Amino acid sequence: MAVENFSLDVPQIETIEPEQECIPEKHFYAKVINSRIHPTVRRLLYASNEELATHYCTMHPQADRLELLRVMNTSSKWYRWAGADLIRTVNLENQERMVVIEMNSCPSGNKSVPFVDWGYEGYRRVMENAFVPILISDKTLPSGSLAVLYDVMKQRKESYAYALMLAKLTKEQVYLVNVGFQPQLPDYMRWSPEGVCQLEVKPGEWLDVRALFRYVTRKPWLKLPLLSKTMIMNPVIACLAGGRNKLVAAKAYKQFNEIHAGAGLKINVPYTLTDVTKKGIMEHAEEMNHQMVVKVPYSNCGVGVYTITCKEELQRFFDAGHTYDKYIVQSIISHPSWKRSGCPNQLFHIGCCPQFEPNNRYVADLRFMITAGPNGWMPVAIYCRRAPEPLTANCPPGRSWDMLGTNLSIGSDGTRGTDTSRLILVDEESFPDMAIGYDELVECYVQTVLAASAIDQQCQRLMSDRQHFDLRLFMQLDDDQTFIDEVARGCSRIFEQDFGKNGCSDGTDRDQQQTPTSEHVNSAPMVPSTV
């Protein structure tokens, strides 16, 4: 197993200057630096939305091209940087489809894209199209510096590259800040009563931050306010509305599919049950023949995902001592010879056959990163991953995750490192292992755009403008009181304002930190960047 760990001795706050040199070894995995993008992937990354929509509708004639193109070319209001994990599946009718497993509001990816003919283009696309235009167009931002935040050392490669690209595009100094993996803010970061992020760059010297790019993955609602004067990308609303909330995301997908059914557009997901209690998990396990996946809605890096194929694995979920009230249950995507779940439209893995082991088939997924600029969505980065063990007709009891789990993160909390031996590059050498062609890549892009658009529409339903958050609607979408209490600790102003009219329980825990009096999450219209 090739493990990349990230135990670097670096300052908590680093200063990134515009003239700093771009050193690939600091921003990319070693194995990608001398690799070239597969021509099929290159074709997709440089294709226009018009080309991609036309190709998709040729393969899916039921889809309305004009409506698809409208969705593609609509700039996202809140969720401007997104990543989907997709799996290639087949059902009992032998219909193949790319299925969205989950979305991410801080997606990794650029450090895994072949460098030779792509370089820093992925980092540039995110900053140049989604972040910098807001700096130019929004005249309500406070004065201050720019910052990039991260909370896990393994994310520093990409965070550093985003900070460097931002510095070069704006010709400004950018602060790269490690906010730590603990749930509370570090001593050197705070939020002013007006909702401005502040950093202690030197002892006793605090600087305001007018805009920040955040790569904060662990419970970001505990460190970042829901409403702030400092512009945050992605804002916390993008997490709560589905980017880091699988429960609410499932409802966003369902609503999107209902609205767009007439246009033949559909987000493909496994059969999903939401708002499932622990008692309900036990009941569904019996109904689904112990062939299901249980997900903690608010986790990432593969943490909180339990593949259940026997009573032993079900007990493992309960032994973990989870504290939330509601969970997601999905029909498992498995081998055709495994027991059936009995769920509608059961799906099975197509997988990949790696060159080093061509007689075995492995479960594999594809990460697709996109970003939203002034003119709509565009592709940014793609990489693939495989499971540790090959998928076989017989699953050893208690070992299903070894065959089905593709996440590369190491450790119980996903922070100890990355198993790069299972990373499949989209280069000329490795990408053929996936047996994915241009048709499937276009489907992946469309599925990612549809899912991200669904979540952004959910964001807009919850936060219609920069001053108001619909707490009542949020609690209808996610009535997990334990999670509500957790969000209240980090976003207490919302709960203090709306406590009475939204019917929060007396148990809602509102924290004692300073809370802004005139906050907003930036939603200014974006204009093309001239930087």
Which structural class do you get from the secondary structure elements? alpha+beta
What is the number of beta strands? 20
Largest sheet, strands/sense/barrel: 7 strands, mixed
Average residue pLDDT:
90
What is the overall number of helices? 15
Helix content: 25-40%
Hey, roughly how much beta strand do the residues contain?
Answer: 15-25%
Separation of the first and last Cα atoms: 43 Å
Principal-axes geometry comes out as: globular
Low-confidence stretches: 499-531
What gyration radius follows from the Cα positions, in whole Å? 22 Å
Structure commentary:
The chain has 531 residues and is of the alpha+beta class. It has a domain at 26-112 and 245-457. The chain has 15 helices and 20 strands. The strands form 4 sheets. Strands 2, 5, 6, 7, 8, 9 and 10 form a 7-stranded mixed sheet that branches. Strands 3, 4, 15, 16, 17 and 20 form a 6-stranded antiparallel sheet that branches. Strands 11-14-12-13 form a 4-stranded antiparallel sheet, sandwiched between helices. It is globular, with a radius of gyration of 22 Å.
Could you list some keywords that capture this structure?
6-stranded antiparallel sheet; alpha+beta
Please render the helix and strand layout as text:
Layout: E1 3-4, E2 13-16, H1 24-27, H2 39-45, H3 49-59, H4 65-72, E3 81-91, E4 96-104, H5 121-137, E5 145-150, H6 156-170, E6 174-178, E7 189-191, E8 197-202, E9 205-215, E10 231-233, H7 236-243, H8 246-260, E11 272-276, H9 278-287, E12 292-295, E13 305-308, H10 311-319, E14 327-331, E15 347-349, E16 364-373, E17 376-386, H11 400-404, E18 409-410, E19 417-419, E20 423-424, H12 438-462, H13 471-477, H14 481-490, H15 492-502
Parallel strand pairs: 5-6, 5-9, 9-10
Antiparallel strand pairs: 1-19, 2-6, 3-4, 3-15, 3-16, 7-8, 8-9, 11-14, 12-13, 12-14, 16-17, 17-20, 18-19
